[in-house]
Amino acid sequence: YACDCDDGYTANANKTACLDIDECSISNGGCQQICHNLPGSSRCGCKTGFEARPKGSKSCNDIDECARNGGRGPCAYNCINTQGSYECRCQSGFKLGNDGHSCVDINECQNKPCKQVCVNTNGGYYCDCNTGYYLAKDGTTCGDTIDYSECGVINNRIEGTQNWKDANKNKWPWVVHFATIMQSWFDYESENLGVLGVILSNKWVLTAGHSLEKDGFYRVYTNDDNSAEVAEIIQYSSCKPKKTECKNDIALVKLTNPITFAENVRPICIPDLAKQQSFLQNRSEPAMILTKLGGNGLQKRSVRVHRAKDCKRYSFSHHMICAGGLRGACAGDSGSPLVFSRKEYNKNYGDRRSYKHIAYLSGVLSWGNDILHETDLHDFDFEECDSDPQFLAYTNVAKKLQWIKDKTGITPRT
Hints:
Order of helices and strands: EEEEEEEEEEEEEEEEEEEEEEHEEEEEEH
Structural class: mainly beta
Mean pLDDT: 83
Oligomer: single chain
Number of strands: 28
Strand order of the largest sheet: 23-24-25-28-27-26
C-alpha cells in the first residue's frame, strides 16, 4: 500500500505520516507583510494601520485614519496621516493632551515673556503694563511714554459722512501742509500753498508730484504747528494734471530735520497689494478725503471708489483711482489723502481677541473737476460742489510700493 497526503502536507521520511508544510518559510508565503501558517495552509495578514484590499489579498494598503470626522480623524484639531499610523497636531497656542488626541492651552505666561504683566488667554497671551506705563511697540516691554511711531492707529473705523465737516486734526495725525520759503536777502514764508501731504516716517512725507517744484524751497507743518524744512523732492515723473497724463503724479519729500511724533503727529500706513485690492473692489466701503480749503481749517468728506470709466472725460490710467461721484465731493488740496481703515488683529499681542483700527493711504489727490480754482484757492466755495456729482483722480499708492521702498526703505504694514 502507499500513503498519500492532502494539499498542504507532506509525508514523513518513512512514509507513515503526513506533516504540515510551513508555507510561510518560503518567500513569506507570498505575503507582503505578515504570514500566518495554518494546518495544511497559510493566511496573509497586515500590520496595525494597514488592511488587505481587496479582502483576502496578499498585499496591504495604508488605512487613512484621518479620513473621518471632517479630516480630523480621532484628533481634536488636525490629523496627519502617515504610513500605518497618524499624528495629531494642535493649533498655535495649544499642545497635545496626555491622551495624544485632545488639545490643551499652553500657559505662555509661565515663561515670563512680559516685562510687567502677562495675561494668559485660550490659545494665546498678551502683555500689559502697570498703571502709569504704556506698552512699547515690541509688545512686551513697558515705558512711561506712548510709542507714537506705529503707523495708522486710529480710535474708530472710518464711517460715511454727509457733505464736508470740520475734522479734528488730532484724529488725522499724519496730515501735513506745505508752505513756500521765498529766497531773498532774507527768508520769508509765503501763505499756505493749499498742498497737503501725509507722514510716512519721521523723515519722509508723500504728496502729489505736480504740486511742488523740484528745486523749490518749502516747509512742512505738522498738526502740532511744528515745522520741518524740505531737504529733497523726489518726483516719480513730471506732469500737469488735465494737460498731460498724470498716472504717476506722486512725490516723496525728504525732510532736513526729523519729525517728533506725538499723539496728534504720527505716520500713516501704506497697504500691500492685497489690502488695496480688497478696498478698491468693495465700492460700498466709505473712504475719507481731507482738505484745508474752506477757511475752517481741516475738512473731511467721505467718498467711494468708482469705476475708471466714470473719470473717462479725463486722461485716466490703471495707475489711478477714481473716487467721488457724490454731490459735494469735489476737489480739495493737491496731495489730499484717500484713506480707508481696517480692524486688524493686534500683532503686539498674542491674544487674537485684541484688535485695533488701522488707517491706510490708498491714494493721493492728483486732480478733480473744473470747479477746482487753480488761480485762487481762497475763493473756493463748497456750495458749488453741490451742483452735480464730482469725480476725483488719485494716484494709486499700491502701484508705487517698490519705488517707495527703494527710495525710503518703507514697506507696507504686515
